[in-house]
Amino acid sequence: MPTSIAFYRIAGFTVREYEPDGGYVFVSYDDESVFDLDLAEQFVEPAVNGAGCYLIVPDVDEWHSRLSAASLPVTALADQPWGMREFTLTDPNGNHLRIGHSI
Prior knowledge:
Layout: H1 2-10, E1 14-17, E2 24-29, E3 32-38, E4 53-56, H2 60-69, E5 78-79, E6 84-90, E7 96-102
């Protein structure tokens, strides 16, 4: 959990621990809850995990530039055929956070 907390703080999120042992945290941005992280006892394989997170932001280009400048793992920014301009941020555990907005 400490690695994930540090990663999301570098990405500009506010991370608040819920339990004294650090097993659960709330992740927010600009005073809005975005997602929660839970330290699962069993290993969850991100490639087959059904959970997902899509963050809709007003300026996806700014987000991409800021996260790229912080040397965080992001995909190329692209306009998608389903009408979204988006990219993916991947955390140290392999979880994907897609970030975008309508075009």
